[in-house]
Amino acid sequence: MKNIVGIGLLILMLVSTWHFLLNGVDGGLIFYFSLILTIFLVIIGFNIFLENRDPIQTITWLVIFCAFPFIGFIFYFLFGRNFRKDRIFRKKYFLDKQTFVKISGEAGYNEQIMEMGEHPQQLITLANRLGNSPVSFTTETRVLRNGEETFSNIIEELKKARHHIHLEYYIVRDDRIGGLLKDILIQKVKEGVKVRFLYDAVGSWKLARSYIDELKNAGAEMVAFGPLHLPLLNNKFNFRNHRKIIVIDGSVGFIGGLNIGDEYLGQDQKFGSWRDTHLIIKGEAVRTLQLIFLQDWYYSTNNSFLSDEYLMTGMPNHHGYGGVQLIGGGPDSEWTIIKSIFFKMITSAEKSVWIASPYFVPDDNILQALKVAALSGLDVRLLVPKNPDKRIVFHASRTYFPELLASGVRIFQYKEGFMHSKIIIVDDQMASIGTTNIDMRSFHLNFEVNAFLYRTESAQQLVNDYMEDIKVSKEVDIDEFSKRNFGLKLLESTCRLLSPLL
Description:
Elements: H1 4-23, H2 27-50, H3 55-67, H4 69-80, H5 85-88, H6 90-104, H7 110-115, H8 118-131, E1 139-146, H9 147-160, E2 164-169, H10 176-190, E3 194-200, H11 209-218, E4 221-225, E5 245-248, E6 252-256, E7 274-283, H12 286-301, H13 308-311, E8 323-329, H14 337-347, E9 352-356, E10 360-361, H15 364-375, E11 379-385, H16 391-398, H17 401-407, E12 410-414, E13 418-419, E14 423-426, E15 430-434, E16 438-439, H18 440-444, E17 448-454, H19 457-471, E18 473-475, H20 478-481, H21 486-497
Parallel strand pairs: 2-3, 3-4, 7-13, 9-11, 10-16, 11-12
Antiparallel strand pairs: 1-7, 2-5, 5-6, 6-7, 8-17, 9-14, 12-18, 14-15, 15-17
Helix pairs in contact: 1-2, 2-3, 3-4, 6-12, 8-14, 9-10, 10-11, 14-15, 16-21
């Protein structure tokens, strides 16, 4: 069933085009085109019904098919096909789980975990059970709060590489910073360093072929994650690799919100300043980041490098850094891993929940958790951009503001350029930083990776940075917000209708 409709669409489009070129458009063609399209839509609607999706999502698709048949038809093939994620990624899930359990094991920090208190203990246990990743107390982390600071540290560490460099990115640009990193990687290959570069085929679809060829010709391995030859017939089109990972010599790692491109240095004319957050990691927890990369590499190439030369990490000689846990989530998991941890963070908070997300389209569970936390008297804050880069998501997110504001959530719109940080801070002591947005796509469709920090200096730095961001943001006033014009409300409601599909 999963490809029959796609093949039918392709045939329908080819036949229609051929007929148009020969005879022009006539009433008979329009009639048969409409008839075939209606049949396909009925089949798709029945298929969605049998998939037992969320009722709201199912109804949304049916409404779109009725109101905008042809657009809904195309939109479904690009973004809506479910195809049972567990079937598509079943092999990857079980291989990843077995590898993580076998190699990660237990780090033996029972005493340190007990000293954390009940709330962190529960989060550490949940993250370990869902993500098969133990917590580390011998890992050093440091927050990098913008593109300039992030790329300067990346370049510095890349130049130190002696054995291998592993990169995994959603977006790679062939611009100034992209070219600079490419030149460094080529130089490191000449020095005998192994370079493996995994990029997402959709996120980096604009990447010049010459960029890839230069790296390959120099001896680097560069591979596309989820390549697409016939997008309408590809059942993995909607599942993308949104991770941003660098691992150098197994001892230094980077994760966060920054892709590779000049725009992330604030050089985009539309947005100007780009506010983002990245994290540099040194020590034991880098092994988990390495495992995530190596398993994604194996999935994409069928080549495995699970050996000591890649999994031995340089560990700091002392404790005292706090707890660090690296968790990967994606459509290959039997649980919505990162969303479940977020939910636990929010529902178990005792004083405060602070969130920064450029794309805020929560599902019912997260939305309810935030409202209940605020109604319980907790300090709940949401930081979002004032200026959009994805307008449908931007307008959809604003429809959640009235109920959040009514429950006591304070919402701030960042004014200085574009805010792309993906942060959750709970009780000023625990935090998450990584690639996961508070939206349906990150929770259910994308491969993501986050670092969870427990009483680390980096968690405190995130608190300080959040307060600084609030100073250059405008708080949303519920009375003022309710006065926006009817046209804007109509646009937002229309985008909200699409939110289960975003």
